[in-house]
Amino acid sequence: MGTATLRAHTGELLALKESVAHGDAAATRRQHDKGKLTAHERLQLLFDEGSFTEIEALRRHRATGFGLEAKRPHSDGVVTGWGLVDGRQVFAYAHDFRIFGGALGEAHAEKIHKLMDLAEKAGAPLVGLCDGAGARIQEGVTALAGYGGIFTRNVRNSGVIPQISVMLGPCAGGAAYSPALTDFVFMVRGTSQMFITGPDVVQAVTGEVISQDALGGADAHAEKSGVAHLAYDDEESCLADVRHLLSLLPTNNREQPPHTEATDPADRRTEALLDLVPADPNQAYDMRKVIEEVVDDGEFFEVHERWAPNIVCALARLDGQVVGIVANQPASFAGVLDIHASEKAARFVQTCDAFNIPLVTLVDVPGFLPGVDQEHGGIIRHGAKLLYAYCNATVPRVQLILRKAYGGAYIVMDSRSIGTDISLAWPTNEIAVMGAEGAAGVIFRREIAASDTPDATRAQLVKEYKTELMHPYYAAERGLVDDVIDPADTRRRLIGALSMLRTKYAPLPSRKHGNQPQ
Predict the structure, then answer these.
(1) 3-state secondary structure of 365
(2) 3-state DSSP: the chain helix, strand, coil percent, rounded to 5?
(3) Which helix (H) or strand (E) element contains residue 294?
(4) What is the per-residue pLDDT across 290-305, written as a single tens digit (0 to 9) for each?
(5) CA separation (Å) from 343 to 3, 225, 373, 387, 393?
(6) Which residues are catalytic?
(7) What pTM, to 2 d.p., does this model score?
């Protein structure tokens, strides 16, 4: 083959790849008219400029029947490859809705399988940009088998490499299970939906009439189901936050999260906390403001902000080190633990532990939420998930008790008895089986009932109970709290504890896997 011939073939190849990348102009317009970007446009936003390398761009399906043999577009409706995000390697696949509506067939699935295997071998994060109409009906069971291969790899890589699903279009039926198996799910309002059965099926079976967005849109999953960790108004801001999240995660479970040089002094005093948190344990405040005051430059990345708002889960940095923060939220339901809060925090604790992210737990909890619905809904089972997650975690763990910590909820919120490495408390801490009013009512009910002045007697006994069993140094005297600290020293003390624990080694017993509560 002569030089001229080679150049001609090379020119043809480049023209073909350019054509594949741009796709059908009319289909591109339809995608843009829906307020959606194309697969390649999304990948350009995700990766550092010019760093994306595509593989199998020329792949075509080999199915026949139902008109498929006459329509064999290159790429088969999914773009796969790798690139850099802030200079670190990341793998990604992006459904191309312009081709077969992004529906998954055999070749489409095999491309994703290959990419997932490469991500596993390279030990790098995997991002799925999902915009597909489900299984390709014309290919029958081979399409369904393709999903099975994706699910298997999702599970095999769980806790090994970070897996992020970005929902940028429809995701229905069995296809929705892949995002559910990943670590984080992002959604965009108005264009992305997830459901097992769509509105038409729901209406046919149950008679309920509901729109796609109301059933499985971004807000529904961010607020009601908890399927989505974050929801956005547009794809640009969504993908910008995907990049931000990746900057807080290690590339795999064998590495530490990326450390940055902190400009916020490690010994900065947090005097504002003295005014932010009321001494009265019954008075509400926003725990986010506490987190903002303590972490580097007041910046943190909260997940599941709108689902189970009575607990806050966030990634942040302390002296440049990434930490996972779990905190009761007194501004929502008094910070009580319930079914959803327990599930939310348990999943977050497991994710942090899997990826070597130290845990900081901020405690201000009145207990578990009482009620028939909670008991019948399995609060015991769901609350045990959080207990299991903390007990199983081997990363550095630091607990800080701001005010109240009552009953089983105190134990579950990473207390010394379940393995926290360092437990600190403010002088406003109240650690007890229950609040003083309730405790006195149980212990001294006969004395109160027999008194000529029951209200005065109750008040006196409550005071005595607080003095004896709920004073701020009671737990410290018994070694259940390592130190009672000045709130203004909170940032310095947390950073100091985490620095000491940086080389922590805590092996688990040899076993196939634990049997965690479901």
Answers:
(1) strand
(2) 45, 20, 35
(3) helix 287-294
(4) 999 999 999 999 999 9
(5) 64, 11, 16, 10, 16
(6) 173-174, 408-409
(7) 0.92
Same domain for 442 and 311: no
Do residue 147 and residue 50 come from a single domain?
yes
Structural domain contains residue 253: no
Which has the closest alpha carbon to 134: 156, 120, 150? 150
Mean pLDDT of 432-452: 73
pLDDT tens column, 462-485: 777 777 766 778 888 888 899 999
Q: Residue 31's Cα: distance from chain center in Å? A: 29
Give the separation between CA 284 and CA 335, rounded to whole angstroms. Answer: 9
In whole angstroms, what is the distance from residue 263 CA to residue 195 CA? 44
Q: Do residue 190 and residue 323 come from a single domain?
A: no
In this structure, the answer to whether residues 87 and 221 fall within a common structural domain is yes
CATH of residue 94: 3.90.226.10
Pair 354, 451 in one domain? no
366 inside domain: yes
Domain ranges, residue 461: 436-469
DSSP string, 410-477: HHHTT-GGGT-SEEEE-TT-EEESS-HHHHHHHHTHHHHHH-SSHHHHHHHHHHHHHHHHSSTTHHHH
Q: Domain tally for the chain?
A: 3
- pLDDT tens-digit series, residues 392-419: 999 999 999 999 999 899 999 999 999 9
Among candidates 294, 291, 275, which has minimal Cα distance to 283? Answer: 275
Do 56 and 184 belong together in one domain? Answer: yes
Are residues 212 and 198 in contact, defined by beta-carbon separation less than 8 angstroms?
yes
Which residue type does 506 have? A
pLDDT digits (tens, 9 = 90+) for 216-266: 999 999 999 999 999 999 999 999 999 999 999 999 999 999 999 999 999
Dihedral of the alpha carbons of 16, 18, 22, 23, in degrees to the nearest 10:
10
